[in-house]
Amino acid sequence: MSIDTARRRQQGVTLVELIMFMVIVAIALGGILQVMRLTTANSADPLRRKQALLIAEALLEEVRQAGFTRCDTRSGNTDSAPDTGACSFKEDFGNEGDPGNHYVRPYDNVNDYASAPGVATAAFNDGAGKLADALGRPMDVSGYTATVTITPDALGDIAAGTTAADSEALRIRVVVGFDKSESVRLDGYRARYDPAPGAQ
Fold it and tell me: What pLDDT, in 10s, does the model give residues 53-80?
């Protein structure tokens, strides 16, 4: 074996090659660590979104289970009035509680959950402004807000109605906000079981 051949076998990497290798590995490792950091920081987000969705589903179900009559329950003809004009106490948007009987959740009518048609209303808060369940107890969640918007709308063959109070179908939108800029929105519909003559 010649001396030149022995020298070629003992040669390793040059200093420049070693430095280039270290730079490439450092850049790749930095990118991997950045991705891991972002993944870890956002790993709780799906849990918050899922919880917001559960809250929105529960609140939408509460509103949809309320009555949808033309007259307030204080009227004697709640189930038989053809329109709100035939009611001694008409059912309209907002809570119609009289001084001796302040209605509380769950409200007796879908319209009671919104202050006016098409207006987002924080109907699910307790007296302290915290999100509350249907019985008025504060929910054990923090950082969530909820609003409901009720809008008269046509639904298939059912017309929207001549006035908001006489509408035969309502679109109910519940929006639950969380983490300052995120939100979940659910829409549902409620139609009268006894539409007025000519409404279909």
Answer: 999 999 999 999 988 888 877 777 777 7
Number of alpha helices (DSSP H) and beta strands (DSSP E) in the chain: 3, 3
Neighbouring C-beta atoms of residue 198, cutoff 10 Å: 7
Tell me how far apart the alpha carbons of residues 12 and 159 are, in angstroms, rounded to a whole number: 85
| Domain boundaries, given as residue ranges, for the chain | 3-41, 45-191
Q: Please check whether residue 188 is in contact with residue 181, taking contact to mean a CB–CB distance below 8 angstroms.
A: no
CA distances from 48 to 39, 54, 57, 58, 164 (A): 15, 10, 14, 15, 35
Q: What are phi and psi of 85, to 5 degrees?
A: -65, -20
In the prediction, which pLDDT does 102 show?
A: 47
Which tens digits make up the pLDDT trace of 186-199? Answer: 999 998 876 554 44
DSSP letter, residue 157: T
Q: How far is CA 100 from CA 65, 108, 116, in A?
A: 25, 16, 23
pTM: 0.71
- Residue-by-residue DSSP string for 39-64: HHHTTTHHHHHHHHHHHHHHHHHHHH
42-56 per-position pLDDT tens digit: 665 788 889 999 999
List beta partners, residue 30: none
Spatial separation of the C-alpha atoms in residues 149 and 124, rounded to whole Å: 12
